[in-house]
Amino acid sequence: MAIPLNPDLPISYQVPGVYVYQSRAGAAPSATNRRVLFLGYKTSSGSALPGSPERVLSEDDLLQKAGKGSELHRMFRAFTAQGGAGADLYVLPLNAPSGTAQTRLLTILQSPSGAALGTGNTGAVAAGTLTVWICGQRFDLQVANGDTFAAIAANLAAQIQAGQDVLPCTATVVGATITLTARHASLSSADLPVIVKVANPSMGIAVSPGTVQAVGAASGAGFVKVGISTQTAQASVANLDTANVIAGALVAAINSANAFPISAAQTAPSDTATLFYQPERAFNFNSAAVSTGITTTLTLAWGADGAGLPSSSSPSLSQVLTNLEAQEAFKLIVTSFTGAGARITEAGYTQYGSLSDYSVLGTLASHVEQQANGLICKGQELVIADTRSLAVTGSIPTGTAPNLILSPRYFLGWSPANPQQAYELSSRIAALIMDRIDYPNFNYAGQALRTDSRVPFLLPHDAVRPSNPDVNAAMLSYFLSPLRTEEGTLQIVSGRTTAKPSASLDFRYSFWGVALADDYVRDDLRTSLPAVFRGRNIKNYSPPNTQFTFTPESIRTALASRMAFYDSLDIFDGSDDLIPGVGAITNGVLPSRMDAVLPKRFAIPAEQVSVVTTLES
Questions:
Q1: Pair 24, 506: CB distance under 8 Å
Q2: pLDDT, average across residues 584-611
Q3: Do 495 and 388 share a structural domain?
Q4: Is the dihedral of CA 379, 336, 430, 510 positive or negative?
Q5: Which helix (DSSP H) or strand (DSSP E) does residue 169 occupy?
Q6: Do the strands 349-352 and 287-291 form a parallel or antiparallel pair, or are they unpaired?
Q7: Which of 301, 329, 361 is the last residue of a domain?
Q8: What 3-state DSSP class applies to 167?
Q9: Which end of the chain is more exposed for a tag (fewer CB within 10 A), N or C?
Q10: SS3 state at 291
């Protein structure tokens, strides 16, 4: 029998041990690794040493290490609200780079009349409730008849400030405008969803996230557009259109767009469109664009755009990952460092809004793959999520270097326009996996993300619920794990890795369970096989006569025994017919090494049943 060799284990490397190369072509912690690493920013009040992983035993412990409202704090809260009992939790805190913190505006104004700004009032004309959700956290303000816009803003800001210890932002107020400022000056802060609802329209108030101003007449034909969360409204621009006309066209486009998350109004004629939150719709990842070459530009007054990467932190991410190489494997790594911004580069447009940058995710992928090879043997999965549009989220797996589609080690959840931050979703997914890790092949289709009484968890609006064609495209074209509201809960449609099936990457690696089971087998072999050979000598030409020697057949027998064990756990789909394919021989160049092969066949998720009904006479 020809025994394949481990391509990651050169003859020049002779440190004793078991080294398992995971061939994914079709045809050394304990076996159940429960270590989870949260990778994100801490605040200045966090006492943890930046760049050094630390174990976390409680929320109070986390607060001391990473600070209130930090990314790590919110990851921990989401994870523990979902479950994850028994997981061994660690944080790897970084200082935020010297970037720009995302800000959101909430300006209290008179409600518009259609596409015209309201005028004449200075406050509410009836009593009612104003509700704001910030990353799922709810704040209700009772507004009295006659409360001025400034008083309403001040009272709402006071409520937010009283509850901001668990928020990823802080609140300040000037006049009738509240400014929410993210705690971290980084690109990851761009994910800051806000929802507003005015319960009683008779109050005569509305809340604005800001304005878009057209500057200069057009010197040619083109387009102007505004994007919020997953949707875009676009207006045509004709040659010589004035700024007032362009602003008016944008207002009309926003108000006529199907189920758009904002509305707009202006005082005609005006070059400025004032935007308004639509009830119970998430405002996040705001962007704008205008065709290049037509002279017209845009001035956005809707908050600062998050910017700044961990590559410019101190210590830098690359230094941190180098230090991490000395650590035992973490089964799951959860991070906010996806590089998600409000926009991706689009040719032919001058763009506005935070710019996506997937270079950091590529750095993380390089680390995960290098550590997972057949020499180092660290089986680690990176769990991330995204709440932008299908096409934009779908740009992630092929937008990194190395591409995420080349490996099943990445679980990318997709929930468009979710009112929670994306890293909250990935933290919950990680907890869900940890709750089921004792059976690594678990079928995650239909599993629900949940919460407890401490941590709010909102569902996406019905208007942005993915269609079946979008869900199918998410899995087959973009290699995502779609999440969708079903029966009042946010459920995983299918637990899919980012792996793109190919000649060297079997379709079965599309499933989380197969990726996790593959790692389980390797971890188990590294734990169990040393008992066969450690402290013994190889005999190739005669049977052993003492406990001090063994033969290649001993390795083959041990591997066959483990295969039967995996089958008994329903990790393998049968072993009897595979065992004849097990082989072990002494390496022809390095006679102190044994080369072995173990065939594998995993039980995979059942997701569809196709039935044809026939009419009989």
A1: yes
A2: 96
A3: yes
A4: negative
A5: strand 169-174
A6: antiparallel
A7: 301
A8: coil
A9: C
A10: strand
Examine the domain organization and report whether 443 and 324 are in the same domain: yes
Residue-wise pLDDT tens digits, 436-450 = 999 999 999 999 999
Model confidence pLDDT, tens digit, residues 17-38: 778 777 665 444 445 799 999 9
Q: Write down the pLDDT at residue 21.
A: 76
Are 453 and 472 contained in the same domain? yes
Here the tokens at position 101 are 């913190």
HEC letters along 187-243: HHHHCCCEEEEECCHHHCEEEECEEEEEECCCCCCEEEEEEECCEEEEEEECCCCCH
Residues spanned by the domain of 606: 1-18+545-617
433-470 as b/e, with b when 16 or more CB fall inside 10 Å?
Answer: bbbbbebbbbbbbebbbebeeebbbbbbbeebbbeeeb
Contact 83, 429 (CB under 8 A): no
Omega before 50 within 30 of 0, i.e. cis: no
Q: Give the contacts of 238 (CB within 8 A, at least 6 positions apart).
A: 218, 221
**∠379-385-386 over CA atoms, to 5°?**
150
Which tens digits make up the pLDDT trace of 242-265? Answer: 999 999 999 999 999 999 999 999
d(CA 516, CA 404): 16
Is 239 a domain residue? yes
CA separation for the pair 170, 67 (Å, rounded): 13
Q: 3-state DSSP call for residue 42?
A: strand
**Same domain for 510 and 393?**
yes
User: What pLDDT is recorded for position 7?
Assistant: 79
Mind listing the pLDDT tens digit for each residue in 60-81?
999 999 999 999 999 999 999 9
Residues 325 and 329: their CA atoms lie apart, in Å, by 9
Angle ∠(190,196,197) on CA atoms, nearest 5: 165
Phi, psi of 597 (to 5 degrees): -135, 140
pLDDT over 60 at 460, yes or no: yes
pLDDT digits (tens, 9 = 90+) for 274-294: 999 999 999 999 999 999 999
Pair 272, 339 in one domain: no
Q: Are residues 340 and 453 in the same domain?
A: yes
When pLDDT is cut at 50, 70 and 90, the band that residue 97 belongs to is: very high
Which run of H or E residues covers position 37?
A: strand 35-42
- How crowded is the C-beta side of 347, counted as CA atoms within 13 Å? 0
Name the amino acid, one letter, at 266. Answer: Q
Q: Are strands 594-597 and 205-208 parallel, antiparallel or unpaired?
A: unpaired
Cα–Cα distance between 211 and 223 in angstroms, integer? 18
Tokens of 534: 């450690």
Q: How far is CA 119 from the centre of its chain?
A: 43
User: How far is 318 from 567, CA to CA, in rounded Å?
Assistant: 40
Any domain includes 30: no
Nearest to 440 by CA among 516, 522, 509: 516
Q: Given this model, what pLDDT does residue 13 score?
A: 72
Q: Which residue has the higher pLDDT, 3 or 341?
A: 341
Three-state DSSP at 58 gives coil
Do both 381 and 457 map to the same domain? yes
